[in-house]
Amino acid sequence: MQSSRFYKLLIFMMLLLGASTLFAQNDRQAELERQRRQLMSQIEELSKLRQSNKKDERNVLSQVEDLDSKIKTRQNLIKVTNSQANLLTQKINQNINKISDLRDELEKLKTDYAAMVEKSYKSKSSQSRIMFLLSSESFLQAYKRVQYMKQYSNYRKKQGDQIKERTELLKQTNNDLIKQKEEKQQLIAQNREEQEKLEAEKKQQDALIAKIREKESTYVAQIREKQKAADRIDKEIDRLIREAIAASKKETGAVATKVEKAGEMPTFNLTPAAKALASDFASNKGRMDWPVERGRIYKRFGTSQHPTLPNITTYNSGVEIETAPGSVARAAFKGTVQQIQLIRGGGYTILIRHGNYLTVYQNLKNLKVKVNDEVSTKQALGEIAVNSFTGKTILKFLVYKDSQRLNPEEWVYNM
């Protein structure tokens, strides 16, 4: 009896451990599937944008950068899909072992049950049960024998229920195993297709790189010209922010400190309402809305190396977001339109103030707001113009705290 209880306890612990492992694997599988769908969506968005902007593409560099982004995204997709297939392999092996254990357990339960049925058959007559009770030496012993017969009957029923439960679990595990094997085959087939697409894209990229190398000096000059123009626009935006800070000090009756005059970064003077708005803005770090309804990151914040010209690095003061022609920029957070400026080579630039934080929207036309307008989150600001260098519809988006540039990717959700 004790060995039987130990065996049941061991089986229960194994099932409990298996269940916790299964839950963890299911969570991991769900996360991988989310990542896979997100990457597939990014590739689809890249393809749509490339198709819609293709007629306006003005240089080979832009095409190479598009392909580089697409290749990296597809490589990540293949990696995630491989992880899913490997996780399914683990689950398949676990279910194979589980099926083996369940069959062994079911065989033992059936053997025990058969022995119990045989024993019950030999003493099934009511006369035998009555004689068993009447042969009791005392009332207490007769009572205990009645209880024993009830327990025996209940145990027999419990054994039957366990056999039914284990049979159903074995059937379900077999079904899960078949489904998992099918899912794994689908993932393998999808990965094979993605690998073929990846190879085709790499061949396209190699052909374009060969063209670039034929006229490398020309393309290097184009990149440097673009960086020079971006730096000029950044200086203009910095000037506008310094003017806004000076205006805030004038409004509050403050004066510039000696530290600021010595060249340190100036900061806004804040009213109580502006402090509350700045606190609200800061508390939404990582959760702010995208400044476009749909789009993808074309250039990220900071210094980066060119994908095909290893000796060339560029600096981006914000993020550049490619979107479809005719799309509008929208406010990433509520605030006040601080400044609107037409900058040569950069279209209209809108600065929205959020206390001592600012969001900047560059390369706009057909504006829908004016200076001092109070704007709400997602409110339309203006149409995004075509970038003069790439021929793409690109919004440049920047975030500042006072006069310090911040990485917008840390502020906008899932950027």
From TrEMBL:
Coiled-coil ranges per UniProt? 29-59, 85-119, 163-250
* Keyword terms: Coiled coil, Signal
Give the organism, scientific name. Leeuwenhoekiella parthenopeia
Where would I find the M23ase beta-sheet core domain in this sequence?
315-408
From the Swiss-Prot or TrEMBL record, give the protein name: Peptidoglycan DD-metalloendopeptidase family protein
Entries under SUPFAM superfamilies matching the protein: Duplicated hybrid motif
Q: Which Gene3D superfamilies match?
A: 6.10.250.3150, Glucose Permease (Domain IIA)
Q: Which residues form the signal peptide?
A: 1-24
